[in-house]
Amino acid sequence: MDFGDQLRSVDDIMADIRERLQDPRDQHVLPVREDDAQREERGESESEGSENRESVSEEETDDEEQREENVGERQGEMENQKQELLGLVKYWKQVVLKIVEHKHQSERKDQERLQGMRKTVQEAQMEEALKQELLGLVKYWKQVALNIMEHKHQSERKDQERLHAMRKTVQEAQREENVLQEKRAEMEYEKKQALVEVEQVSRQLELSLKDKIKMLCEKEQQIIMQREEIKKEKSKIRKEKEAIRHEREKNEIIQSFREKMAERDLEFLKRRLEKWEGEMIEALEKEWKNIAIERKLVEEKREAIELKKRMEEKELRRQRKKSQDIISVVREEVLLHLKQEPKSRTWRSRLFSPHKKMRDVSSRISAWFSRGLSSEHFSLSDLRETEREIERLKERTEQNEKDMLQALGRESEKTEFEKMQTKDEREALEEKKKKAEKKLRKQRKKAEREEERKERDPLAGSDITREDIAKAIEEILQQNKAAQKKDEPAKRETGRGRLKKKLISAFKKAKAGLKTAAFWRD
After folding, report:
1. How many Cβ atoms from other residues are within 10 Å of residue 370's Cβ?
2. Distances (CA, A) of 475 to 48, 266, 332, 468, 479
3. What Cα–Cα distance (Å) separates residue 425 from each residue in 309, 419, 429, 433?
4. Residue 102 contacts by C-beta under 8 Å, 6 or more apart in sequence?
5. What is the residue extent of each domain of the chain?
6. In this structure, what is the dihedral angle of CA atoms 328, 332, 333, 335, given to the nearest 10 degrees?
7. 8 A C-beta contact, residue 199 and residue 473
8. Per residue in 386-437, pLDDT tens?
9. Kind and range of the H or E run holding 509
């Protein structure tokens, strides 16, 4: 192993130490370059130490009972940690010794090499620098060993402080548990006393309630016996009178009900007529709207026809002007030709007579146009065609005017009413229509509500109200009372007699109300 390799190994060791010193988790460990097996063993020991510390921090947050049980285990763990720290110190001592040995070996080798060769000034300077670096390394490793020992002492102090605090917390927890047990005993004693008192009060209440219930049952039995006796005595007379009264009331109610039904049917027919009137009004309004739409369409058609007529008139004027220009040009050309030709009577007669020469003249004129004598000259055939087109356009315009007049004549009857009306009249009619529509809607809603009411309540739509029924029931009861007074002998006004009378009257009222309700239901 050369001196350069040794220097490289030392540099590598220094780099590893600096990296470990920068890591706050491993400040107490300063590794040296060593074998892979030794590194793995040391990493396992360090991981075990970190796990033990984490377990200690977690166990501090557990319950007080677990703390008491784990005190012994923690002491064992602290001893293990101390042993681990002692092992580390020994390890670093060995490392320092190895470094010193390495230093001595390097010095010996250097001396042997210096004896075998002549040294230059530069080599001597390098040797001195290396010596100084080695001395610095020795000092550094000494300081590292001292730091490890200080860290060991600090960890021992911290462990002792934690044990002291844990003992204090265990004692305080025991005191609190004793206090809680005393309070629980007091609460249980108070609960037992309260339960005894509640049982005594409940027994007293049960006895008093049983006595009261017995008294009430006896009173109820007496009242029931009295009611049964009264019912047996009065049942025959009441049945006969009630049957007669019921038949009489039934006949009267049926007769009044028939009268009301007849009135109701008349009202129903009136409503139907009003409904039909409303529907007719709506249909008429729809027709008026359709008429207005048709009227607008007719006006649009009329405007289109007028526009078409104007265009055709313009076209006619243009064609007439064109034909007049053509005729004037032809006339001028003919006159010029006549002036140039010899003025003989026979030639003129031939020219203006229905003769073959006329065709020659027209052919000449057409030849002039074909030669291009003048752009404003036209042939006789062109003149005739233009005249025919003019006549056709006249016929078309006359036919269109006739069609338009016929259409206007048919629709004049529809448009007369609108011509008569002004804007104010139209607005007034629209407002009246809107008001009539609102009234019709309200009447329809009312009719629908009345029909629903009649379906739900049989008295709806009739003059008979519930107050009238109640009054009739009261009158019947008063008549029954008067009849009972006549039939029954006079009794002494005692407390028992008053009670009987009240019971009888209440029973009669209830029965009469039930009968009336059943009748109206049927």
Report:
1. 9
2. 108, 32, 127, 11, 6
3. 34, 11, 6, 12
4. 6
5. 3-178, 341-376, 465-522
6. 140
7. no
8. 566 667 766 776 776 677 666 655 555 555 555 555 566 667 777 877 787 7
9. helix 495-521
